[in-house]
Design brief:
Number of helices: 4
Low-confidence stretches: none
CATH architecture: Alpha-Beta Complex
Radius of gyration: 13 Å
Helix content: 25-40%
Number of domains: 1
Shape: globular
Order of helices and strands: HEEEEHEEHH
Length: 111
């Protein structure tokens, strides 16, 4: 699958209360003011929230797809090469999971 930054942007902005801003030289996405996704490296990858144990397992299992930026090693974030994603379903699962980790409980509980 050939995923682009525009695909990620469109998906992220379709999620409730998501906004796009530009910071640190890249597009960033927040839900209710809380960061959940960035598009670094010229929008060829994305950084998403991911619990550290899960992140480490992902990187070990699929190093051609997932990696950890040195400055994020101590944080619950993982990078994903957009070109390595299998399909739209995988993209949706990754972005939505990151959004859920940042979204306020009230937003998650609303219909």
């Amino acid at each position: 699958m050939n995923v682009t930054g525009d695909d990620v942007r469109s998906l992220a902005l379709s999620l409730p209360e998501t906004t796009e801003q530009f910071a640190w030289g890249m597009p960033i996405f927040k839900v209710s003011g809380k960061l959940f996704l960035t598009l670094p490296e010229g929008e060829t990858s994305m950084a998403v929230r991911c619990p550290i144990l899960d992140r480490d397992e992902l990187v070990l299992a699929e190093p051609a797809k997932f990696w950890i930026a040195a400055h994020e090693a101590g944080n619950a974030w993982v990078r994903v090469y957009l070109s390595a994603l299998d399909d739209r379903e995988e993209l949706t699962a990754i972005v939505t999971d990151s959004w859920r980790q940042a979204a306020p409980r009230a937003l998650l509980d609303s219909p």
